[in-house]
Amino acid sequence: MPILTVLNNKGGVAKTTTAINIASRLAGEGKRVLLIDLDSQANLTMSTVGQDGEAHVGHWLNGEKPLSEVVRPYVPNLSVIPSSKALDMYSKLIGSEEDYQFKLKDRIDGDNLTKLYDIIVIDNAPSLTTLAYCSLVAATHVLIPSAPEYYSFAGIDNIMQSVANVKKRYNRQLEVLGIFFTKYHTSYRKKVANDVVEAARETFGDLVLTSTIRVNASLEEAQMMRQPVYEYAPDSNGAADYSKLVEEIKTRL
Ligand SMILES: Nc1ncnc2c1ncn2[C@@H]1O[C@H](COP(=O)(O)OP(=O)(O)O)[C@@H](O)[C@H]1O
Ligand SMILES: [Mg+2]
């Protein structure tokens, strides 16, 4: 069962947008999908089920509340384990434990989530710290959204190193599913953006996906309305681009 972690230590590169849209697309196709929000900014939570502050992923990770009290339904076939500002405190607590790296993996195994769902998608904070490490240890695949700019390559290198490190020490099955470019301008910046994709291919080879996600306001609006873009604007470029991305990802899973 694929466990996909969406990772980039930069903010604003569409990690959350990607997690929501991949998950809701797959759910729309009939897959049973779980989204886990591991970012204390809780953007994914706010853009899907909203935040009620009652129960969050920190409670679940720390064994204070069972899954049933934490997980919330979003749309058919898609549930969310929400986050909260309080996750920062839990992250510190968890990070001070021995073998903290296995915290998420142990919960996923302990609650038999690989039987309950067909795919799990994890959204991360813009950092490579405690909980992001936990997600790499629990995941089968890493998906890396990136800004289509040269300076972002150094960041991707960092992620690759972390992935290699986790793969060697904790999780042999971990693979990079792909790198892809988001907020891709099709007008005046087209040339530069294309050059960046070409350069990325020279550096990262086949790990660079052919799908790119164009700048599209519907993606942002859908999140504000707490609706999957497939419901809010099914004919938008955003819906089309994420559908293509999902098709490409499926060939690699
Ligand atoms: N392709 C896109 N076109 C326009 N806006 C986008 C696109 N992808 C993401 N956004 C918006 O950009 C902002 C940052 O995206 P987000 O997914 O929250 O990034 P991250 O999780 O990496 O910090 C959000 O307001 C989001 O709605
Ligand atoms: Mg985010």
Please describe what this structure looks like.
InterPro entries: AAA_dom, DNA_Partitioning_ATPase, P-loop_NTPase. This is ParA family protein. This protein has an 8-stranded mixed sheet, with helices on both faces. It starts with a strand and ends with a helix. With 253 residues, it is of the alpha/beta class. It has a single domain, classed as 3-Layer(aba) Sandwich (Rossmann fold), CATH 3.40.50. The protein has 13 helices and 8 strands. The longest helix has 18 residues, at 152-169. The chain binds adenosine-5'-diphosphate and magnesium ion. Magnesium ion is lined by residues 15-16, 39, 43.
Shape: globular
Main pleated-sheet profile: 8 strands, mixed
In CATH terms, what is the architecture? 3-Layer(aba) Sandwich
The radius of gyration is: 17 Å
Trace the largest sheet across and list its strands: 3-4-2-5-1-6-7-8
As residue ranges, the low-confidence spans are none
Strand content: 15-25%
* Spatial separation of the terminal alpha carbons: 9 Å
Structural class by helix and strand composition: alpha/beta
Organism: Pontibacter toksunensis
Protein name: ParA family protein
InterPro entries: AAA_dom, DNA_Partitioning_ATPase, P-loop_NTPase
List keywords for this structure.
alpha/beta; Rossmann fold; binds magnesium ion; binds adenosine-5'-diphosphate; 253 residues; 8 strands; DNA_Partitioning_ATPase; AAA_dom; single chain; P-loop_NTPase
SSE map:
Elements: E1 3-6, H1 15-28, E2 33-38, H2 43-47, H3 57-61, H4 67-70, E3 72-75, E4 78-81, H5 87-95, H6 103-110, H7 113-116, E5 119-124, H8 130-138, E6 141-146, H9 152-169, E7 175-184, H10 190-204, E8 208-214, H11 217-224, H12 229-232, H13 237-250
Parallel strand pairs: 1-5, 1-6, 2-4, 2-5, 6-7, 7-8
Antiparallel strand pairs: 3-4
Helix pairs in contact: 1-13, 6-8
The structure holds adenosine-5'-diphosphate and magnesium ion (MG).
